[in-house]
Amino acid sequence: MKTPRIKAIAKKEFIQIWRDPLSLAMAFLMPVILLFIYGYAITFDIDKIPTVVYDMDKSSVSREFINQFHESGYFLINFSVESYKEIDPFLDSGRARVAVVIPEDFSKNIWKGYNAQIEVLIDGGDSNTATIAQGYTLAIAEGFSQRMRGAKVTPLIDSKSRVWYNNELKSRNFIIPGLIAIVMAVIIALLISLTIAREWDRGTMEQLISTPLKTPELILGKLIPYFLIGFADTILAILMSTLLFHVPLRGSVTLLLGLSAIFLFGGLSFGMLMSIAGKTQLAASQAALLTSFLPAFLLSGFIFSISNMPKPLQIVTYFIPARYFVTILKGIFLKGSTLNVLWLEALLLTLFAVLVFIAANRKFRKRIE
Amino acid sequence: MSDRNSDSLAVAVQELRRTFGDFIAVDNISLSVRKGEIFGFLGPNGAGKSTTIRMLCGLLMPTGGIGTVGGFDINKESELIKRVIGYMSQKFSLYDNLTVEENINFFGGVYNVAKKKKAERKEWVLNMAGLSDERSALTRNLATGFKQRLALGCAILHEPHIIFLDEPTSGVDPISRRNFWCLINEMSQAGTTVFVTTHYMDEADYCDRLALIYRGKIIAEGTPTELRKKYMTRDVLEVNVDKVVEAFNILSFHNIDAAIFGSALHVVVDDAEKSRERISIILKESGVMVKGMDKIPPSLEDVFVTLIEVS
């Protein structure tokens, strides 16, 4: 391999990206936009659930109970109604997601030491919110009954959970580290997939393959500029995560950057392979989108938990390098994990990168088919 | 890197063949090109010129046949061939969003031109292409003639021994075409072998030797003079008259083959001496004044049209 040739290819490719506004926007604007959308707009944290109350009891006890909802911070009691019929429009229109109905004998039962029942209607349209609201309701009812009972009975098991790594349970902390993997997948899918196919389309490849240029020189030369751009994006994403979104970065930055570089190299080689296999620009970019961006988005555990997927899909995730990278990112950011813990993921990423780079080199033919 | 063989042939292929499915693009052709000559590969569009040139350059695998280019086997050593040749494809193949200078630098790098020589070769190409003052211009903004010369320059930056040019003059204006051929001539004088395809028959006379390809087969081969002698058995008379169009119409009416060439007519006849008188009489009777009539050597265009009509 001759370095002047690699340098010539890399330089040419870089100039071409630099002069193409669309490529530039994709390279530097897209990551920022993605981070903004996911950082600000999507949140799985649930608080201030709009709630409507139908209190038939109207006693001090029932008011105290309702107040518990209010104080928890999870519910926002902004409506009060006087009949069942009035509840429906609130739930139907989405003005309220939860309705709490307190029966007439609520306080009477409590004073007598009977089991007092309440009714809670939850809008199941958003199942995530519904499940969480249900949990909160139960917890509030439990706490309230304990208080009313006094400390007379000690429960046999008193479970007190403590959340590690992300103790405020902020979904942002959970989403953003994984998002770095997605940002890179976008660069890979949309930028590099065109690089070989475009040269075939425009006829410049015919000139290139008539020269003594060797395949690894061509592929490496083309990878370098995209690698540098991808790496700059990674640093940008890390900076935005920590400075703008205050996601804690507890592990080693060097390890983070090193493993990102490996993921990037593998991903770019894969995009290159798609570009070589696709031949036309359209085929190549679609293939790249389907095989790198979408799986990274859906099957990496970035948002959707892998353990909740059906078994066959879980097996598929083992073949998606983004899966390992998301684990690495979350580990380093939230747990401060070191290579002692992440070695398997790091090894698999490296293996993937090497195999795909070799495959891309083998797939490329310095000939017209 | 130098050529391997010391014999006098730059290109030698036998029974070269290429099919695409059922279509036979190149049908068992054999060729030999001597070192330092300008070899013209002529034929109409779709005759198999580009397919042949691509096989010779190691860009396309032959379906059959054997041969060497620069002494290297076309079937097994295509990567070695690529070190000794320069190739200019039919489609403009420089990067149009790079400047003139960036394109030259790029190919200088790809051909791994020695560092010391790089600057000198760059200036040579800029000069040759007449682009010394346009070095920072984007290539896409150049006129076709300049683009072609720049493409040629980039293809020969590394001073190859053999140059393959696929329709280098197509779409270029006549003056640029003439200049382009001057360049090719200079390179040949300097010892470079030039293999050039064209569908402009009038360019055939610039070549040392020619092969005519038609429907994948070579139908004629030789020097321009040989081809004229061998294949043009009929004579051509150049007739100078005062009213060209009228004269043309009269001769056509009498079933005599004529074509207008400027202010004169080219008349194709079986025997010049016998026909001289008859043409004279016909034209005089119709009131056309004949100023002169000479037997001239036929142009290669006449030769090829005749050949293609036969096959």
Keyphrases for this structure?
heterodimer, A: 369 residues, alpha/beta, four-stranded mixed sheet, 4 strands, 67% helix, 6% strand, B: 311 residues, six-stranded mixed sheet, four-stranded antiparallel sheet, 10 helices, 14 strands
Commentary on this structure:
The complex is a heterodimer of chains A (369) and B (311). Chain A has 369 residues and is α/β, with parallel strands linked by helices. Chain A has a four-stranded mixed β-sheet with strand order 2-1-3-4, sandwiched between helices. Chain A has helices at 3-19, 21-41, 60-72, 84-93, 106-112, 127-149, 171-192, 194-202, 204-208, 215-244, 253-278, 281-299, 311-317, 321-335, 339-363; strands spanning 49-55, 75-81, 98-102, 119-122. In chain A, helix 14 (321-335) packs antiparallel against helix 15 (339-363). Helix content of chain A is 67%, strand content 6%. The radius of gyration of chain A is 28 Å and the shape is elongated. Chain A is built from 15 helices and four strands. Chain B is of the alpha/beta class and 311 residues long. In chain B, 36% of the residues lie in helices and 29% in strands. Chain B is built from ten helices and 14 strands. Chain B has helices at 49-56, 78-84, 100-110, 115-129, 144-155, 174-189, 224-231, 244-253, 272-285, 300-310; strands at residues 9-20, 23-34, 38-42, 64-69, 72-73, 85-88, 162-166, 193-198, 209-214, 217-222, 235-241, 257-261, 264-269, 290-296. A six-stranded mixed β-sheet of chain B has the order 6-7-8-3-9-10, with helices on both faces. A four-stranded antiparallel β-sheet of chain B has the order 2-1-4-5, with helices on one face. A four-stranded antiparallel β-sheet of chain B has the order 12-13-11-14, with helices on one face. In chain B, helix 3 (100-110) packs parallel to helix 5, helix 4 (115-129) runs antiparallel to helix 5 and helix 7 crosses helix 10. Chain B is globular, with a radius of gyration of 23 Å. Chain B starts with 8 loop residues before the first strand and ends with a helix.
